[in-house]
Amino acid sequence: MTLGNKIKQLRNERNMTQPDLATELGVTVRTVAYYENDERQPTKSTILKLCKLFNVTSDYLLSENESFLIDAEDKYGLRGKKKAESFINETALLFAGGELSEEDQDKVFKAITEIYWRSKEKNKKYIPKIYRDDEK
What we know:
Elements: H1 3-13, H2 18-25, H3 29-36, H4 44-54, H5 58-61, H6 64-95, H7 102-122
C-alpha cells in the first residue's frame, strides 16, 4: 500500500473530508489530493503532522523507498531526490525475478541506502561549492 493510499484510508476511517485534512495540515485541498494520488510527497514536517493526527508511526506511513526519497530531498533538494529515484530504480533491478522475501529485500535496501548516505557524506568535498548547503 502506498503512502497516498494509507493517508486516504486513515482519513476515511476517521470520517474526515479532504478539506478537513487540509485544514489540519495547513495545506490546500488540492495538495491533499496530490498526496492521496501519490502525485506529490509530503514534507517531513507534514509527515510528522500526519503521524500525530492519525496516531501512527512514520514507519507505518512510509516504505523504505518513500522514507529514502524524503530524506534525499530534505538533505539535497530536488536534484538529490531525482538522483535518489534513479538509485532506487537501479537497485530494484537487483531484486528482479529474485528469490528474496520482501523482508530480506527491505534489509538489503536499507544496507545499500546506508552505504549511499555514507558515500555522499564522504564525497561531499568533491561537490562544487554552489551545491553545498554548508557553504551558503
